[in-house]
């Protein structure tokens, strides 16, 4: 008569085996020579390699793309310290180059993975093997990336002028304060240009506010096309604009201002079968240690713009 205890032990072994094989995670066991000792169904399905073809094979011969030196270093620390080690998808997108198989992530070509390396001991307590658990984190990773992108877009919207696509006044003033503080630290020249459209009210009264908006957008495009990637332009309010020019002396800022002024002169706005031209006035102030703060620097540039208006408009004034 068979011993029921033996039957129970066999059943438990069978259940454990079935459980390991059907886990919704990858499970690999390696010996100290990095040879595969266990390869569950998750790994079979995603690698296309049957268990019979991988057992006793070096994991690095099976997957040439594995970062051998880096991964061996990780596993050696597990053998020596007898502690688990973790690899997140933020640290490394994946360990095994598997494709995701879920509808939610159908547009993603690669499975994002979290990996846990576990020390496995023999009855004497010696670490003889390492268990590698592969978690499919693709859904979580894509959700995280989408949320990060949405937050980035919201942040961009919060600092962007809707009509022109330039920085809005609030964000541009933050940049102005940072640039002034940078100037105080570095001593490098920095310039500020204030400009606005001459007789803008007349444009609105004659052609309508939509035509005025079109002129504002056209001027914004010209500004973006004339400044460097390091320069910071913003819509300061209505038809008034501001440009920060880091590492720029006043004579260099004047060159840019004049190029922009002449480009505006050559610009023709067409709206509802009517066309018109306009001009701009500009004021320039170079940052100075005599400025009490960034607002004082801004007021000097605004005074320079005011001088251009008083002197007949369509010109640049340095102050």
UniProtKB/TrEMBL annotation:
Enzyme Commission code(s) on record: 2.7.7.65
The record's listing under Pfam families reads: GGDEF
Q: Give residue ranges for domain GGDEF.
A: 188-319
The protein depicted here goes by the name: diguanylate cyclase
Q: PROSITE patterns recorded for this chain?
A: GGDEF (PS50887)
Q: Which reaction does it catalyse?
A: 2 GTP = 3',3'-c-di-GMP + 2 diphosphate
The superkingdom listed in its UniProt entry is Bacteria
Q: Where is the signal peptide?
A: none
Xref: PANTHER family: DIGUANYLATE CYCLASE DGCM-RELATED (PTHR45138:SF9), REGULATORY COMPONENTS OF SENSORY TRANSDUCTION SYSTEM (PTHR45138)
